[in-house]
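sry for the spam today, last one i promise. struct tokens for design, 278 residues
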């Protein structure tokens, strides 16, 4: 009976040096397969070498249905949440909810407030669906309410916008003296009032036109402030009767207190930037 004996080496790594690894045997690991053509007897022989064998397996893990559901939920909520900027401080949660209800069901309204409880001019509005949220953006972005132009956009990562940098209050030596300017045309803006005082006297500390109409029309009067009483009186002498957009100005020292003048200025910058867009 003829027998074919075929040794096959399946895995033979490079021998390790006994100097570095004294615990390893000299002979490499090998597997010999003896096969007979006419016999079903098979024999595997393994050496007793201690050479280590390393096996690695890689497996792609698909995201679980729960993870996909959480991701989809977060994306859907993100599409329904809006951030509304430059809101009038007089608006309440109910007012905002009633306004946005024109575009669908309002789930939640959150007005962001400072530590003293005063509104900071923006809020988060959550609609019932992404379609309703988009409709609200299309309708109310650049919408004029109580004399202010509000901005509406989708909330980004649910992060609240940083508060505007606080303006340092002027030192006592820089007290503001306020001029009351009336007989303004409804088209007048704060920049127009500032420019006419600058051209006929000198640049004021602040200039503000008051708006009362939701359509963005001027209430017909405004306030201009200077550092000293002398400057305010000189400005009155120079500006009384001067024309602004076809109407003569009426100017006098405001009855507002100096402390209130500071608040007038603080509102000036916000109104100025927004009213110019109308």
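last one done:
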């Amino acid at each position: 009976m003829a027998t074919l004996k075929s040794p096959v080496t399946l895995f033979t790594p490079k021998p390790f040096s006994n100097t570095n690894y004294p615990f390893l045997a000299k002979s490499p690991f090998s597997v010999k397969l003896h096969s007979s053509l006419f016999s079903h007897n098979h024999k595997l022989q393994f050496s007793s070498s201690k050479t280590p064998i390393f096996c690695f397996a890689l497996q792609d893990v698909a995201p679980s249905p729960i993870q996909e559901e959480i991701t989809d939920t977060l994306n859907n909520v993100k599409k329904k949440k809006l951030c509304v900027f430059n809101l009038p401080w007089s608006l309440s949660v109910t007012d905002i909810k009633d306004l946005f209800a024109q575009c669908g069901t309002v789930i939640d309204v959150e007005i962001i407030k400072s530590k003293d409880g005063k509104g900071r001019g923006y809020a988060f509005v959550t609609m019932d669906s992404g379609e309703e949220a988009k409709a609200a953006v299309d309708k109310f972005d650049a919408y004029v309410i109580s004399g202010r132009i509000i901005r509406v956009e989708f909330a980004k990562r649910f992060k609240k916008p940083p508060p505007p940098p606080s303006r340092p209050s002027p030192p006592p030596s820089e007290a503001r003296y306020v001029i009351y300017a009336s007989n303004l045309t409804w088209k007048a803006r704060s920049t127009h009032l500032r420019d006419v005082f600058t051209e006929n006297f000198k640049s004021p500390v602040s200039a503000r036109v008051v708006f009362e109409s939701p359509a963005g029309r001027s209430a017909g009067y405004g306030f201009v402030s200077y550092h000293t009483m002398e400057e305010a009186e000189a400005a009155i002498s120079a500006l009384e009767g001067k024309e602004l957009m076809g109407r003569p100005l009426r100017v006098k020292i405001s009855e507002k207190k100096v402390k209130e003048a500071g608040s007038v200025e603080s509102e000036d910058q916000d109104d100025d930037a927004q009213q110019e867009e109308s």
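Residues 1-54 form one domain. ok im logging off now
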